[in-house]
Amino acid sequence: MRHLGLPFLIIAVAGGLPPAPAAAQDRAAGTDGSAWTMPRMPDGQPDLQGFWTTQTFTPLQRPEHLAGRAFHSEEEWAALQAQLTAEGVDPLAGNVINIEDPDEREARLYQTNRDPSYVHYDNEIWLRTPVPKGLSTRRTSLITDPPNGRIPAPAPAPEAEARAAARAEARRARDPFHGHETRPLSERCIVWPHNGPPMLPPAYNDIHQILQTPDHVVIFTELNNSLPRIIPLDGRPALPDAIQLIPGDSRGRWEGDTLVVESGNFTDKTRFQGSTATLRVTERFTRVDAETIRYEFTADDPATWARPWSAEIPMVATEGPMYEYACHEGNHDLRHILEIARNLERREAGTER
Length: 353
Prior knowledge:
This protein folds into two domains: 27-51 and 143-349, no CATH class; 57-141, no CATH class. Strands 1, 2, 3, 4, 5, 6, 7, 8, 9 and 10 form a ten-stranded antiparallel sheet that branches.
């Protein structure tokens, strides 16, 4: 894991502000207080190219103990930043922000406090970045709508309830070690849940590289089992409904200085937060200063949720290069996992060789 830079003081400001008009964005203040001019491609569109990080302890959904509070106070935010970015903190302690008690949260942040039977490499050494992972902004959740910062309730339709019950029963009934088809998609090197669309911050190796031409935008995520996202901007029609893809089918366009990407044609295997093939995702990329792209998305699936919902995640400039994740190359984990399962079955049956 190479080191990344994350100027979280910058994104704390950028993430908590409403969008500025396009004309104002061209002359926004730079990070050092000087005037900043929107970088543009030869065709006049904003230049989004570069390496961007989304690392954050900010949770997708608002913790229950913060119900009704969209933002931390300045004092709370400063205390949390100090606690989360302290030396020795485990960057993989992702759900620690859900713990209300400061002392309990403090204990959970350090790998040395785990059960001695836990065997793993030292996350603080391997995954800590020069500017450590903190909170993205003073927001208490990445979800901005609904106002409660939570994923909406399930769709109030009998078929949605029946589908959820059938999925739960299938999970209970099947042997998770029966074969490769019952193992998670990420373990099979097919896709990670965070790859999107929509994109969510991964646990580590969270760099996104953006490349751009007048006709296409390419987004390549470092912790990635899939191909880079190649998003056409040339107005071509979406794929026919009969063609469905796990990452969906994306089409982009410019609305002023904001890149808008709409995606559909998902499969039932995508299951973003329990979604179905009728999922629709709208993403918005807006460069707000030299260091920050404001990334927003709205997820809509009437078969899954009672209403659409939206989130906002700052993407902050960082240094490259990215390193190849290479899940497939030399990956014997799946074979070994299933071999162990068969050995255990033989032992239980008394036929161990």
